[in-house]
Design goal:
A hairpin with a 5-residue loop joins strand 4 and strand 5. This protein is an alpha+beta fold. The chain has one helix and five strands; from the N terminus they run βββαββ. Strands 2-3-1-5-4 form a five-stranded mixed β-sheet, covered by helices on one side. It has one domain: YggU-like (Conserved Hypothetical Protein Mth637, Chain: A, 2-Layer Sandwich).
Length: 71
């Protein structure tokens, strides 16, 4: 289990990992959880784990989040 601090930028498409800091660009709008779903999908793909192994621990409705990745 590893915790990461995540900063979200909208209208972009990228993922950058630096230690326990992730900066991610997403295209989805923060409506009805669409943005959070895209974040989880991108992070799980990057780490090669199931999306069920990625959890937003804090920051469900903000651009700064803490995410847990189970490996």
């Amino acid at each position: 289990m590893t915790l990461y601090h995540v900063l979200v930028e909208f209208q972009k498409d990228f993922l950058k990992v630096d230690g326990n800091q992730i900066t991610i660009g997403i295209k989805s709008k923060p409506i009805k959880g669409q943005a959070n779903k895209e974040i989880i999908k991108k992070i799980s793909k990057y780490f090669g784990v199931s999306s069920l192994c990625v959890t937003i621990k804090k920051g469900q409705k903000t651009e700064k989040k803490i995410i847990e990745v189970l490996n």
